[in-house]
Amino acid sequence: MEFIAAVAIGLNPYIGALILTALVAFTPRGPETAVLAATPQALLVALTALAGLAAPVDFVLGKFVRFAPRVRRVSQLVAPVAGGAAAAAVSQSELPLALVFAAGAAVSWSVAAMLSALAARGSRSRAWVGLGHVPVLMAAATAAASIIPLALANTVAGTILALCALGTLLLVSLAPALSGARAGGERLYSARGLGARRSENVGVHVNV
Predict the structure, then answer these.
(1) Cβ atoms of residues 79 and 109 within 8 Å
(2) What is the pLDDT of residues 166-198, one digit of tens each?
(3) What pTM was computed for the model?
């Protein structure tokens, strides 16, 4: 559950935190952990309200090209803190909470960073007229809202969905580098072939 919460919050820290804290605060579906048991109900409600207020602001401002870069920078700062705290809160392992917090923060930051890079690349796409980041952020928000409830209902299904989201981000993030390397190899191969043909032509000219 720690990994699932970290991935969901990395996709969208406000919606991920909103869903998690709301389920823990108002339903009996939350995981039974020492951290959650020691957390006051009022604090959980306050965190739910805070995330609920921040989510629509992020959702709206993140769609405008003028505000999107700043909104993403803030999200990348919030994601590791919220992801680490969520991972530690739902952890049922025997690992030290500090280690769980650090691992959850790292996962959330990595997901948020890949998402920011993908959104920036989409916004530069001519096909989307500068709005390519919108479907990226909407897909991430939808996934964040779906992963945690599914995980609380069925941990295996939630883990699969979190892995699919992370795998998709990794694949799409690595695709430009792989394409660039392949294109570079093809250009190098073409350059070598051209050089060989030029050498042959020079040889023929000398012999003649």
Answers:
(1) yes
(2) 888 888 878 665 444 444 444 433 444 434 444
(3) 0.75
pLDDT of residue 141: 86
Instruction: Report, in angstroms and rounded to the nearest whole number, the Rg of the chain calculated over CA atoms.
Output: 23
Say if 72 falls within a structural domain: yes
**What secondary structure letter does DSSP report for 92?**
-
Residue 104 lies in a domain: yes
Alpha-carbon gap, residue 116 to 105, rounded angstroms: 16
Average confidence score pLDDT of the chain = 78
Whole-angstrom Cα distance, residue 40 to residue 102?
23
Please report whether residue 196 resides in a domain. Answer: no
Counting Cα atoms < 13 Å in the Cβ hemisphere of 122 gives 21
Structure tokens at 184: 């570079």
- How many Cβ atoms sit within 10 Å of the Cβ of residue 118? 22
Range of the domain at 31: 2-178
And the tokens for 167?
Answer: 């795998």
Question: What total number of domains does the chain contain?
Answer: 1
Rounded to 5 degrees, what are φ and ψ at 164?
-65, -45
Euclidean distance between CA atoms 45 and 22, whole angstroms: 7
> What percent of the chain lies above the pLDDT cut of 90?
16
Residue where the block lists tokens 């007229």: 129
Distances (CA, A) of 103 to 86, 92, 120, 136: 11, 14, 26, 25
